[in-house]
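Backbone-to-sequence.
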């Protein structure tokens, strides 16, 4: 077996192992929800369902982009493998961070853990995407190249905002959680910039919307 064939086989096995971690994390996120003792307490748990939905959606986003990285640009080099395992660690810890946040909503550890795992996950995804673009960007179709490049920008912004909120907890306490609201705003700004640049360069609409 040649070296390239061996690395390809290793990448496929690594992807299969990663899928197991993603599936386990999705299942575990449901166990973070506490069953109310009475039906009258259900309304008081609606915020828990909201954060569960966010966590579930984030894991699904991580899986989708992880699939695209492996399908288009992943190469089983040592740094990429280490980043992938670090990403899996963040995904596996997300249900624990969610449980900690829901159990102690007014605590610093719960908020810090939640922001750190999500921010770290987005940051690691961006690293994998950028490294893949640097290696295989010239071999990708224009549509795929735009798709991965945009994903790298958005994930960098989302991860940067969440990780930047961590030191703020030491200065302004739980109010640092308001910084999380900048994530969708920052992504909207990035999308607007992408559209403007795409229009200026004559990027095909199908590629710009990928």
């Amino acid at each position: 077996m040649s070296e390239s064939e061996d690395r390809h086989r290793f990448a496929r096995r690594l992807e299969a192992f990663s899928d197991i971690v993603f599936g386990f994390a999705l299942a575990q996120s449901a166990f973070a929800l506490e069953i109310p003792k009475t039906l009258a307490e259900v309304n008081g748990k609606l915020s828990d369902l909201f954060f569960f939905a966010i966590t579930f959606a984030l894991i699904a986003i991580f899986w989708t982009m992880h699939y695209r990285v492996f399908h288009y640009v992943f190469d089983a080099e040592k740094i990429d493998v280490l980043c992938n395992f670090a990403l899996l660690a963040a995904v596996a810890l997300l249900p624990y961070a969610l449980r900690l946040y829901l159990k102690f909503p007014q605590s610093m550890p719960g908020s810090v853990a939640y922001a750190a795992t999500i921010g770290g996950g987005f940051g690691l995804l961006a690293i994998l995407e950028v490294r893949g673009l640097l290696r295989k960007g010239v071999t990708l179709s224009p549509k795929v190249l735009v798709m991965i490049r945009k994903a790298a920008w958005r994930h960098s912004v989302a991860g940067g905002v969440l990780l930047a909120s961590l030191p703020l907890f030491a200065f302004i306490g739980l109010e640092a959680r308001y910084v999380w609201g900048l994530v969708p705003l920052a992504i909207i700004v990035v999308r607007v910039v992408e559209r403007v640049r795409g229009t200026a360069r004559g990027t095909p609409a199908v590629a710009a919307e990928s």
